[in-house]
Amino acid sequence: MGFIKRYKWHKIADKVADIKWTAGKVSQVEVDGKSYCIAQVGDELYGFASHCPHAGAPLLDGYVDGSCRLVCPVHSMKFNLKNGREANGDGYKLKTYPVELREDGVYLGIEEGGMFKWL
Fold first, then answer.
1. Which of 46, 61, 65, 86 is a Cys-bridge partner for 73, taking CB atoms 3.0 to 4.6 Å apart?
2. What is the CA radius of gyration of the chain?
């Protein structure tokens, strides 16, 4: 058995070129009054929580290394942008969100509700 994640998709930009990136290739967006971050690695976009799960540092100040990992600006913890796992094995996990490029813009998926939908 598994569960199906359902997302509400939010348009965050008309095109990737409209996104304002930091030098570390991170951007912050607001959706329904909450902040989220996105990062760019090559042609791929990854969504994630705006604060580090370890000490709450603002991840907008972090940077993307060459291995699809986000590096926290405070303690240099590294998180895999594909699955949120912390690379050093300390057990922390960064909440991640899907990002889709569509004909009419860039969308961030925020999981709906808190209920499991069983298959």
1. 61
2. 14
Best CATH choice for the domain 7-111 from the list 3.40.50.300, 2.102.10.10, 2.30.120.10, 3.40.718.10:
2.102.10.10
How does pLDDT run across 62-104, given as a tens digit for each residue?
999 988 999 999 999 999 999 999 988 889 999 999 999 999 9
pTM of the model: 0.89
Exposed e or buried b for every residue in 26-49, given b needs 16+ CB within 10 A?
bbebeeeeeebbbbbbeeebbbbb
Spatial distance between the Cα atoms of 103 and 114, rounded to a whole number of angstroms: 30
Q: Look at residue 29 and give its three-state secondary structure.
A: strand
CA terminus-to-terminus distance, the chain: 6
* Whole-number Cα distances in Å, 25 to 7, 54, 106, 113: 25, 21, 16, 30
